[in-house]
Amino acid sequence: MTLPAWLAAINFNADGLIPAIAQDHKSGRILMMAWMNAEALQLTAQTQTAVYFSRSRAKLWHKGESSGHTQTVHDIRLDCDADVIVLSVTQAGGIACHTGRESCFYRRLDLSGQTPEWQTVDKVLKDPSDIYHSKTSDGKAVQDTNLSTHIDTDSHSTPVDKRSILQQLDHVLAERKQADADSSYVASLYAKGLNKILEKVGEESVESIIAAKDFAHCDENKDKAQYDEARHELIYEVADVWFHTLVGLAWFDIESDAVLNELGRRFGLSGIDEKAAR
Fold first, then answer.
1. What is the pLDDT along the chain (278 residues), one digit of tens a residue?
2. Helix (H) or strand (E) segment spanning residue 61
3. Please, what is the angle between helix 224-251 and helix 256-266, to 10°?
4. pTM for this one?
5. Residues whose CB falls within 8 Å of the CB of residue 80, separated by 6 or more in sequence, listed in order
6. Of 194, 225, 236, 237, which is most buried, counting CB atoms within 10 Å of its CB?
C-alpha cells in the first residue's frame, strides 16, 4: 500500500514504528511516551484523538479506551530527523499515567547526595484500581502490578537472572510497607490492609482461569494472531496472581525464598510420597 506523502516522509524504524511523545497543550509538561505505526498516526490525525500501537500486544490502542482518560490532539510535530513525533494534547481527567498520576515521568533523579537516587515527586491523583475496573486493552494493564521500578513488558533490556527478579521484588515490597500510601500502587494496597490484598489475589486468580479457558479455545493453525494474544493474556494474568501473592507474603514478612525452598524440598518426590511426608 502506498502511503500518503506526509506519512511517507516519516522515518519509521525497522519495525514500522515511531516514538510519540504526548505533551500537555497548556503547561507543556511531558505526559507520556508511546509508539505509533503509520495506521495509528493516520487515525490520530483523522480523529484528532491519540491512537497508539502496543508492541507487547501487537495492536492499536486508543488512549483512554478503558480508563476514560482520552487525549484530544491539538498539534502534531515531527523532529528534524523525522523519527520522533510530539503531540500537543488535552488530557481528559488530568491523568495520563496508568499509575493514576498526571504524567508517566513522575520520578526525578536527586543529585544532592553522594549517590544519585530516583525520587517519586508526583502524587497519585486517583487509585489505579478505581480507574481500571477490568484489564485495559491499551497495553497499560500493568497498573495492577505497578512498582515505582516495574518491569516494562515492552523493554528490550538485557535479560536478568529469573531468581534475582523475585529477590528484587522482595526488596521493593518490603520498602513499600513503609512508604506513603500515595507513593505507589503497592503502598496503597498495604494501606488498605490484608483483606484488600487477598481480594486482589482472588480477583487475579479468577481472571487467570478465564484467560486459560479462552486460550484453550484458540487454534494456532486457524488464527495465529488470536492464539498469540490469548497466550500472552494467560501469561499476563498468571503473573498478576504471582505478584499479588508475593504482596500477601510480604505482608507477613515472608520472602519468596521460603516458597522456593518449599518447592525445592518437594522436588523429586512423587505426589503420594510428598503428601505422606506432610
1. 688 999 999 999 999 999 999 999 999 999 999 999 999 999 999 999 999 998 877 889 999 887 889 999 999 999 999 999 999 999 999 999 988 899 999 989 989 988 898 888 888 888 777 776 544 333 333 333 343 333 333 333 334 455 578 888 888 898 888 888 877 788 889 999 999 999 999 999 999 999 999 999 999 888 888 888 889 889 989 999 999 999 999 999 999 989 988 888 887 665 566 556 55
2. strand 59-62
3. 110
4. 0.51
5. none
6. 237
